[in-house]
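R.M. (postdoc): so does anyone remember the format we settled on? I'll just put the structure tokens first.
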């Protein structure tokens, strides 16, 4: 039965969004709430209580407008809920911004499963879920001994909304080192340490796992999905093939439909993600949103211009990687970010320099992914015309498009509400706009590349 209203609870690292879609995936209503992180102890942790309380209220409001028949959670892929036998948290949900003690990281590295099994490196901070579990198991053994059920972050949101406890493959396969990518099972490390048997039973992202009472609609709670994979799913529902999606926000994450994951180089921050159907997808990333914020110094994207970007390049002002502790596609550059040449003088120059730098780094992500098809920019960076025009100039052999979707990730999650038990994808077209490459920047990328890997 086609749902009337689909409510999406999209839990991001910075903000949580509540969105209402109809069966045509038209966005009807949206509300935003800051995501809550606590500094600890025992580590920086995520508090879902405000999100769940507000979700119940907002979904009730949505239901008064249009009967809500499906509720779909999506969330970033770097959080786990560890529950005891009573269903209470044995340990708080770790935030991936937590700084793993060096001794813990050093002890974990020899245990990490083979790269050709998990198709991902050990990531910075606490981004790697297997490293999170190892830290929790070794540093808090008494609490960890009480853990009977482990749920990924999106599925924990579904559980708190009233669904049964399940795990799901897009979360497990999101560069976690918990998943044997091509074997389609828990990794050798997860099995060896007995973590696999503590995970809740696997469900498909579109499976109904419960229902929220008190609504006019059916209120069916779907198992939920890793947020970037939801974004990718939206373009699969368009019927599109042979493309690279750039899902942008705090991170810029590329999904390429054509590259074999066996060809990826984890040193360049390329890895496999796993789509809702359990298929490996070649992915690459860098902290685009975080780095553009660091460079812009609060200057709005609208202050940038291609003309200013050209002026900065002509006088030798360039930003070199990387302004976070991850080098993204350029290994060894983490924490080395710097500006060479005369410093930017005003908001327009800061915004233009930031747009230029992120476009250059994104071009490197596309190189690392061996991307050759059309490129689609989705999310906040699609609203940055200078970034998009420069990226198109730096990829002369590819067509770059921007998506007109207001909320591509949430719309992709809403697709799950349209899927029946057989997992058949609905067809919902996406309108794209072709980007005109920025003129007058020929040679800039080659000059930047020569400097980017040089010693500081």
């Amino acid at each position: 039965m086609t749902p009337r209203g689909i409510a999406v609870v999209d839990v991001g690292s910075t903000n949580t969004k509540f969105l209402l879609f109809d069966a045509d995936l038209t966005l009807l209503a949206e509300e935003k709430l800051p995501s809550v992180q606590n500094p600890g102890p025992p580590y920086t942790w995520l508090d879902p209580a405000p999100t769940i309380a507000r979700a119940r209220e907002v979904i009730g409001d949505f239901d008064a407008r249009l009967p809500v028949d499906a509720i779909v959670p999506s969330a970033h892929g770097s959080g786990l809920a560890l529950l005891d036998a009573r269903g209470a948290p044995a340990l708080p949900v770790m935030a991936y911004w937590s700084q793993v003690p060096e001794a813990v990281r050093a002890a974990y590295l020899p245990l990490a499963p083979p790269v050709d099994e998990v198709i991902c490196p050990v990531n910075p901070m606490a981004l790697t879920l297997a490293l999170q579990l190892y830290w929790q198991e070794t540093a808090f053994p008494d609490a960890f001994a009480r853990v009977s059920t482990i749920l990924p972050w999106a599925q924990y949101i579904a559980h708190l909304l009233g669904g049964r406890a399940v795990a799901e493959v897009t979360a497990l396969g999101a560069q976690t080192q918990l998943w044997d990518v091509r074997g389609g099972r828990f990794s050798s490390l997860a099995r060896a340490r007995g973590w696999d048997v503590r995970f809740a039973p696997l469900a498909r992202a579109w499976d109904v796992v419960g229902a929220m009472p008190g609504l006019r609609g059916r209120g069916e709670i779907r198992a939920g999905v890793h947020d970037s994979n939801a974004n990718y799913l939206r373009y699969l529902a368009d019927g599109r093939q042979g493309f690279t999606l750039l899902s942008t926000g705090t991170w810029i994450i590329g999904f390429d439909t054509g590259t074999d994951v066996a060809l990826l180089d984890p040193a360049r921050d390329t890895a496999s993600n796993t789509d809702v159907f359990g298929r490996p997808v070649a992915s690459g990333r860098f902290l685009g949103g975080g780095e553009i914020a660091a460079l812009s110094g609060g200057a709005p994207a609208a202050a940038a211009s291609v003309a200013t970007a050209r002026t900065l390049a002509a006088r030798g002002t360039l930003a070199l990687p990387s302004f976070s502790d991850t080098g993204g596609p350029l290994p060894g550059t983490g924490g080395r970010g710097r500006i060479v040449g005369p410093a930017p003088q005003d908001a327009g120059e800061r915004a233009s320099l930031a747009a230029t730098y992120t476009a250059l780094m994104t071009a490197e992500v596309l190189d690392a992914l061996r991307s050759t098809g059309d490129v689609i920019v989705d999310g906040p960076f699609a609203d940055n015309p200078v970034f998009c025009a420069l990226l198109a100039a730096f990829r002369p052999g590819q067509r770059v498009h921007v998506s007109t979707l207001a909320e591509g990730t949430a719309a992709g999650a809403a697709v799950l509400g349209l899927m029946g038990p057989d997992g058949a994808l609905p067809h919902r077209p996406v309108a794209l706009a072709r980007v005109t490459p920025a003129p007058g920047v020929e040679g800039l990328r080659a000059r930047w590349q020569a400097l980017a890997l040089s010693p500081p």
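R.M.: ...and that's the designed sequence above, right after the tokens. Also worth knowing: Residues 162 and 210 are 6 Å apart (CA to CA). The two ends are 60 Å apart (CA to CA).
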